[in-house]
Amino acid sequence: MDSLDRDILVALQSDGRQTNAHLAESLGLSASAMLERVRRLEQGGQIRGYRAVVVPEALDLGVRAVIGVRLRVHGRDSIEQFEQRIGGVTGVCSCCHVTGQYDYLLDVAVRDLATLPELIRGDLAAIPGVSKFETMLVLSEVKPFAGWPAPGR
Q1: Helix runs in the chain, H state only
Q2: Is residue 150 part of a domain?
Q3: Which helix (H) or strand (E) holds 135?
Q4: CATH classification at residue 13
Q5: Looking at the domain assignment, is residue 85 inside a domain?
């Protein structure tokens, strides 16, 4: 991957709906060369997909929380089982394996405060090996995720 590929990624991350012709023109390539590069980035896994950024309220998701999860045992089986099961839990928007006080941090979104305990008791607590949760309600989103930083750009 060269600097032009990185420029393509930054441009698409900023506006994934721009046309191939516009992208090619803005970076000084022919449309066919740009299409080839973008396809290579998609096939190589550097571009995972394209999606709209939707406000949670539009989907009746009025409560967001960050949940710290600690596992009882830190063996391979316990970690793999948690990671496999958490992928299927509706309401979990993202899950990061972290260092520190918790083993995982979950970003969750649910309809309302009454639904949050259902997610915790019904879905998360049912995953074998989980020993502790700490739930922090999101009061406001100060800086929404706008894409990965591009150092030196």
Answers
A1: 3-14, 20-27, 31-43, 76-86, 115-117
A2: no
A3: strand 130-137
A4: 1.10.10.10
A5: yes
Measuring CA to CA, which residue among 60, 75, 59, 52 is closest to residue 129? 75
pLDDT interval class at 66 (50, 70, 90): very high
Average pLDDT over every residue of 14-31: 95
Domain hosting residue 14, numbered range:
3-43
Question: Strand pairing of 92-97 and 63-71?
Answer: unpaired
Whether 32 maps to a domain, the answer reads yes
- Is 85 found in the same domain as 18? no
Cα distance between residue 13 and residue 7, in whole Å: 10
Residue 17: name the closest of 53, 43, 44 by CA: 53
CA distance 94 to 4: 30
pTM given for the model: 0.87
* DSSP bridge partners of 69: 104, 133
Q: Is residue 88 part of a domain?
A: yes
